[in-house]
Amino acid sequence: MKKEQLATFNDAVIAIVITLMVLEIKLPEMTPENLWALGQHILVYGLSFLMVAIVWLNLRIILAPLEVVDNRIIWLDLALLFVISLIPLPTEALGEQFEQKLSHVFFGTVMMSLAIVYAILHHQITKRAATLNEKCKSVSLSKNWLAIFLYGMSIPLSYVSLYLSTGIFILIPILYFLPSHYLDEISE
What we know:
Oligomer: single chain
Order of helices and strands: HHHHHHHH
Radius of gyration: 17 Å
Shape: globular
Number of helices: 8
């Protein structure tokens, strides 16, 4: 299969997931008391949107050096899309029940699953991409492992403090926005 076909399918699935996430935000009656609840929904949607956008962008970048994709890459990509399709569920749970520990655990678990599947897919793609140098692979892998570790830590920390788990949920997208010169090298 050509990488463009896979990228097009990814685009379609991700667009549907983002649409589902935003449709789950229910607009309450506009009162001062309801604005906080609406703000929580928008914050959680924003975090979920950023993670989906980061995965989409990174997929575009790491698929670029490949000419064709094999069955292993296709199945790993489908596994990634499956986890991405689950994101609206914990997004809704966390937006609706922000003060509940289990909603944080659910969100952290799905996001950690996303990070794990992405790391495996990333590893398989970079093994096949001859044009990527070892430094590029190493820096990217470090961010992937850090995201897995932090999401994993958010789960038990949800029982200690919801603020700590929320802080981790906010920190992870920020880490991906830190400058990574290897991205320029990959996309050239």
